[in-house]
Amino acid sequence: MSAMLEGSTEKRRRRSKAEQRAESLEQILDAAEYLFSKNGFYGVTLRDVAERVGIHTTLLHYYFEDKRNLFDAVFERRAGVTCGRRMAALEKYEAEAGDHPTVEGALHAFLDTDLDLYFEGGELWMNYAAFVARVSNTPEGAMMMKVHFDPVVLKLISILRRALPGYSDEDLFWGYNFVTGALMNTLGRTGRIDRLSGGVCHSDDFPAVKKRIAKFMAAGFLALKE
Amino acid sequence: MSAMLEGSTEKRRRRSKAEQRAESLEQILDAAEYLFSKNGFYGVTLRDVAERVGIHTTLLHYYFEDKRNLFDAVFERRAGVTCGRRMAALEKYEAEAGDHPTVEGALHAFLDTDLDLYFEGGELWMNYAAFVARVSNTPEGAMMMKVHFDPVVLKLISILRRALPGYSDEDLFWGYNFVTGALMNTLGRTGRIDRLSGGVCHSDDFPAVKKRIAKFMAAGFLALKE
DNA sequence: ATTATCTATAGATCTATAGATAATGC
DNA sequence: ATTATCTATAGATCTATAGATAATGC
Question: Which fold has domain B2-223?
Answer without folding.
Answer: Tetracycline Repressor; domain 2 (1.10.357)
